[in-house]
Structure formats: structure tokens, C-alpha cells
Design goal:
Organism: Falsiruegeria litorea R37
Pfam family, one: FAA_hydrolase
CATH topology: Fumarylacetoacetate hydrolase, domain 2
GO molecular function: 2-oxopent-4-enoate hydratase activity
Radius of gyration: 18 Å
Number of helices: 9
Number of strands: 13
Helix content: 25-40%
CATH architecture: Alpha-Beta Complex
EC number: 4.2.1.80
CATH class: Alpha Beta
Keywords: Lyase, Signal
Largest sheet: 8 strands, mixed
Number of domains: 1
Structural class: alpha+beta
Length: about 280
């Protein structure tokens, strides 16, 4: 497990602290088996606190790396108002990114990539150096980011019908990471200019036939996409060079059927107006 994981998570594993609703080893094993087989499963820590959820997430990450590879970064989930409204939360939730979930631009994936698959327009910040951990503003974050990458995340909400999907249960499962499609890196050569571009860009998510599913400004994510990095740091995460930061959803999450065979996210206002696309089959 990466040393940058929040102190609360590390302590919950390393000291054997007793948490009221930290998932048992059997619950973790059952969840992992269902996750791998795309089987709807039971919620973890559903009667617990956020501290319980973080303890559960730590145990789950430890178990999942055998299947998903090492943790390569972190995600702030539910960072747009539509996403927060859907799941009844008032702030984001924190999770992880795994090495094996990342796919190249134009990847083809089964439309049933999970038990409850959804897709969203997202964005990745790539950490340049550890000085990012002293940042207090979006501009200071961007001064320590080496590149921006378009990103369509393909989460799996995983939980069976009737199981509660809340901030706590989402946190317990690491905010539902499954797959994600990465666009080409855009170097950050002028941090101040990129800070402005990220705030002013328009992010459009379209189905394969061109139907516009959502179109929102960069400011839809916590007022500025780099605020996701600041929020994660406020929760105890310490970034290392090379870490990827998923800033969260620009607009709602959609089931694969809405993509009509795929999806494309376009970032008008970033250099070259880049895009990233995925095909569902």
C-alpha cells in the first residue's frame, strides 16, 4: 500500500484498531470475489461512520491490489452538484486509483464492465513533485502538476439492488473504481494559464451517435478542478511525484445504454480542445 494513504487508513491497518463497522476479513473476501465476477454485492460499513468506511477501504485496497495492481493515485468522487444530489451527500468522497484499471484512448470495453456500470467525464492531474502538498490555491496546485489528462471513468457501483449507496458505503468500497480511459497528456508549461483554462473550459460528454449527454464548465467541479486535490489533501492524503489525481465527475453519471455504443469527452478551452473516447461492446 502506498505510503501516501491517509494516516487514518494506515493506522487502522497497522495498529489493529477496533472499529465498530470496519468490515471483517470474510466480508472483504466476499466483496472482492463479487467485484471480480461482476456480481451485485452487499454494502460494506453500511451502518458505520466515515472513519469505519476508511478502515474498510484500507482493508479492501490491501486485498484488491492482487487483482488491480498497485495504487497509482487518488480520486475525489461526487465533486459535482448533480452527483452529490444523486447520492445525498454535501461534500465529495475519497477513493483510490489502481494501475490495472487504466486503458488507452479509444479502448473497447464490454458494456457489462461491472455489476452496476456507469460512466462519467472526469480529468486527471499528474503530480510533478511533492511540493504540491503545500499548495493552498488552485494555482499553487497547478504549479506542481506535470500534465493534465482527459479521462472517462468507468466506475462500478457494485452494490445489489436495495443496498444503500451513501457517502459512507461509497467510501468503504474506494468510490467504485473499475476502469478508466486516459487521453493523451497535456503538459503544464504555464501554471497560471492552465489554472485559468481549467476554470473556463467546457466539458462535453457525448454518446457515440453524437447526442450531448452533459455540458458543464470546469468550475462545475468544486469551483475549480484543482480544488479536488486541495480537498483530498484536507482529508489527509499526501501526494507523491507521478501520482494521478482524478478530480471527479463533470456532471451526472450515466449507464452504458446512454452511450449508445460508446462515449466521448471533449475539453473545449484546453490546448488543442482535446478529447478522449471509449467504445462499449
Amino acid at each position: 500500500m502506498k505510503p501516501g494513504l491517509p494516516l487514518l487508513i494506515a493506522l487502522s491497518l497497522n495498529t489493529g484498531a477496533a472499529w465498530a463497522e470496519c468490515a471483517s476479513d470474510d466480508q472483504i473476501a466476499g466483496f472482492v470475489a463479487d467485484y471480480i465476477s461482476n456480481t451485485p454485492t452487499a454494502a460494506l460499513s453500511k451502518d458505520g461512520t466515515m472513519a469505519d468506511a476508511l478502515c474498510t477501504q484500507a482493508k479492501l485496497v490491501h486485498a484488491m491490489t492482487a487483482h488491480m495492481g498497485p495504487v497509482i493515485g487518488y480520486k475525489a468522487g461526487l465533486t459535482s452538484k448533480p452527483a452529490q444530489d444523486r447520492f445525498g451527500v454535501s461534500e465529495p468522497v475519497q477513493g483510490v486509483l489502481y494501475q490495472n484499471m487504466m486503458l488507452p484512448d479509444g479502448a473497447e470495453v464490454p458494456a457489462t464492465w461491472g455489476a452496476r456500470p456507469v460512466f462519467e467525464a472526469d480529468l486527471i492531474l499528474v503530480v510533478a513533485d511533492a511540493a504540491i502538498n503545500q499548495a493552498t490555491t488552485p494555482a499553487e496546485v497547478l504549479a506542481h502538476v506535470s500534465a493534465i489528462r482527459p479521462f472517462i471513468e468507468l466506475p462500478d457501483l457494485t452494490l445489489a439492488k436495495g443496498e444503500p449507496i451513501t457517502g459512507v458505503t461509497l467510501t468503504a468500497i474506494g468510490v467504485a473504481p473499475k476502469l478508466g480511459v486516459l487521453g493523451n497528456p497535456i503538459p503544464v508549461e504555464d501554471a497560471d494559464a492552465m489554472t485559468d483554462r481549467l476554470a473556463q473550459m467546457q466539458v462535453t460528454l457525448a454518446a457515440a451517435d453524437g447526442e450531448i449527454l452533459s455540458q458543464v464548465p470546469g468550475q462545475a467541479v468544486l469551483g475549480h478542478p484543482a480544488n479536488s486535490a486541495l480537498w483530498l489533501m484536507s482529508k489527509g492524503i499526501t501526494f507523491a511525484p507521478g501520482d494521478m489525481i482524478s478530480v471527479g465527475s463533470f456532471g451526472p453519471l450515466f449507464p452504458p445504454a446512454k452511450g449508445k455504443g460508446g462515449a466521448r469527452a471533449t475539453y473545449d478551452g484546453l490546448p488543442g480542445n482535446p478529447s478522449v473516447h471509449v467504445t462499449f461492446n
